[in-house]
Specification:
The complex is a heterodimer of chains A (311) and B (265). With 311 residues, chain A is an alpha/beta fold. Chain A has 2 domains: 214 residues, P-loop containing nucleotide triphosphate hydrolases (Rossmann fold), CATH 3.40.50.300; 57 residues, Alpha-Beta Plaits (2-Layer Sandwich), CATH 3.30.70. Chain A is built from 12 helices and 13 strands. A 6-stranded mixed sheet of chain A has the order 5-6-7-3-8-9, with helices on both faces. Chain A has a 4-stranded antiparallel sheet with strand order 11-12-10-13, with helices on one face. Chain B is an all-alpha fold and 265 residues long. In chain B, 73% of the residues lie in helices and 0% in strands. Chain B has 11 helices and no strands. Chain B starts with 24 loop residues before the first helix and ends with a helix. The chains are: A alpha/beta (311), B mainly alpha (265).
Chain lengths: 311, 265
């Protein structure tokens, strides 16, 4: 339903997005992950016709966004919760969008109800809204045209934990009814619970892509020793790939048993040895996108990161 | 805020709705007209224009010795507030999309940007026509009251050329506002330059007699003066044409290209 192919976006000499390709299927939620400035927003703006790619193509349902007959009826877009006039009420902002979409005014009340802004919040000026309320209004705008696709940039920003939980349920339900969801976040735990597929971007490049299960199983073993240097050389001697983990731990590219045997062979005292599941994705995400200067094998070194807030 | 349970879940109509149709230009223009009046700034600007138009007519009735009770006289006089303030509304119609960042929402819904820009121009032109209609009402009121307040009898006369040229000049000036907005994409910058630039040019060229032709051919304020009385004729049309090219067409085209090419963020 969403197809991004070899998308590259250059600002002057800065490469914001480099050869990004991925797709999203109906019935799935895709989490688009990466640190701030990784190129998420640029990618989504290109997808929605707000930025012109330097090269590459984007399509929704086989068409370029600009060729969609009534874009808002097919794609619900929330790229910036601040993109509403501070002087208009929430209801008025939705009414304007409803006029453009050609949907019934009753639909405005429906989506207001749906996002929890019905009643007095709907009549308040957007300037008086909290960030969380603006996110809800933006989500209402995206849902207004009853689209088949949702493209959301950092929709959880400003939502309280309850709000994030509520949004997960909403997006899951949308996908379960056959909708396609692409949402970005710089926080893994925000999308981990709801996404079927993850695309991780760093420095403008896709550094990992796959189903959540795939990415989880590829993360190896977390191991920690009283003497980290000895552990590192023991593992290297056994031919096991190693990446730095958290708090002095190492992430070894092997099963726990193999790691244990390698440590035992060199008489290294282990204080922790466990498969890197659960928090494994977190460590993967951190290692892929964090300040670590030794990216795991098989990934592309992060290119120079450019500021997302450009332009 | 609490989470809500909805009766109609999102995406309930997935794949069941008929193929969506492109929003018509008429509808887009209605949206832009609504945008011009649904914020405090827009609403008060419209109120101010109406109030000043009434005020001008009232002052003339009571204090202007030249009042002859003719409808055309009041009609011309009441154009001033419209022609002065309506272009600001034209500027804001464009620049507020950037200052308030609504451009992201607007262009996500209508990705063909030229359609939005066309709708904005149509809406601005319609506002100018509505403004002229309002001045017709003001002028009628003033004409009606003339015998009672100022003395002379009411004279109901207005030539077609007078009405036509006033309509045309008001549409032109409001579109100049839109063009400045499109070129500069910043409310304060566009408003300041819209008012300042013509004055600066006038001052500069007035200081040198050899530059009179600039004033006569390129100063929109000067060239359009006869239009408010419906007196524009002959070479005057050519002079209006050249000044409109400079102050309207040039910024309009440059602004159009700028918006087409820019990234909306």
């Amino acid at each position: 339903m969403i197809a991004i192919e070899h998308l590259t976006k250059r600002y002057g000499t800065q490469l914001a997005v480099s050869d990004v390709s991925f797709g999203c299927e109906p019935g799935t939620v895709t989490g688009f992950l990466g640190p701030n400035g990784a190129g998420k927003s640029t990618t989504l703006r290109s997808l929605c016709g707000l930025a012109t790619p330097t090269s590459g193509t984007t399509a929704i349902g086989g068409r370029a966004y600009r060729d969609l007959p009534n874009a808002g009826r097919q794609v619900g877009v929330l790229l910036d919760a601040g993109a509403q006039h501070a002087g208009r009420t929430g209801r008025e902002a939705l009414l304007l969008s409803a006029m453009v979409l050609g949907v019934d005014r009753r639909r405005v009340d429906e989506v207001l109800e749906l996002v929890g802004l019905a009643g007095s919040p709907a009549g308040k000026r957007v300037g008086k809204y909290s960030l969380g309320m603006r996110q809800r209004l933006g989500l209402a705008t995206a849902l207004l045209g009853d689209p088949e696709v949702l493209v959301l940039d950092e929709p959880a920003n400003g939502l309280d934990p309850e709000g994030i939980f509520w949004m997960r349920g909403l997006l899951r339900g949308f996908a379960d009814r056959g909708g396609t969801v692409l949402l970005s976040s710089h926080l893994l735990h925000e999308v981990e619970a709801v996404a079927d597929q993850l695309v991780v971007i760093a420095g403008g490049r896709v550094v990992a892509r796959g189903s959540k299960a795939q990415l989880l199983t590829s993360t190896g073993t977390v191991v920690r020793a009283t003497d980290p240097a000895a552990l590192q050389s023991a593992l290297t001697a056994a031919g096991i790939g190693v990446a730095p983990g958290l708090a002095g731990a190492l992430v070894a590219d092997a099963e726990p048993e193999a790691v244990g045997r390698a440590a035992a062979a060199e008489a290294v005292v282990l204080v922790e040895l466990r498969p890197a599941d659960g928090g494994g994705l977190e460590e993967l995400f951190r290692s892929l996108t964090g300040s670590s200067d030794t990216p795991p094998a098989g990934t592309v070194p992060a290119a120079q990161q450019v500021q997302e807030a450009r332009a | 805020m609490s989470s809500t349970v909805s009766t109609t879940p999102p995406g309930a109509g997935l794949h069941t709705q008929p193929a969506p149709r492109t929003t018509s230009m008429v509808q887009l223009t209605r949206v832009e007209l609504r945008k011009s009046a649904d914020t405090r700034a827009g609403r008060w600007l419209l109120v101010a224009i109406a109030a000043v138009a009434l005020l001008v007519a009232g002052l003339q009735l009571f204090f202007d010795d030249g009042v002859d009770g003719s409808f055309g006289y009041f009609f011309t006089a009441s154009q001033f507030p419209v022609g002065f303030l309506l272009p600001v509304l034209g500027i804001l119609l464009v620049t507020s999309e950037w200052s308030q960042r609504t451009a992201m929402t607007t262009f996500a819904l209508v990705p063909v940007r030229s359609r939005v820009l066309t709708a904005k121009m149509l809406a601005a032109a319609l506002l100018a026509v509505l403004g002229v209609l309002a001045t017709l009402v003001v002028a009628a009121l003033a004409t009606l009251l003339t015998p009672a307040v100022a003395g002379p009898a009411s004279r109901w006369e207005l030539s077609g050329a007078h009405l036509g040229q006033v309509l045309l000049v008001q549409v032109v000036v409001v579109l100049v506002g839109v063009a400045f907005g499109m070129l500069l994409l910043s409310s304060p910058l566009a408003i300041v330059l819209y008012f300042l630039l013509p004055v600066v040019v006038t001052i500069l060229v007035s200081s040198v007699a050899a530059l009179d032709w600039v004033r006569d051919w390129l100063d929109l304020t000067t060239t359009t003066i006869p239009m408010y009385d419906g007196q524009l004729a002959g070479q005057g049309w050519a002079q209006v044409g050249t000044s409109v090219a400079l102050w309207l067409l040039l910024p309009l085209m440059a602004g159009w290209v700028r918006i087409q090419r820019s990234e909306i963020a």
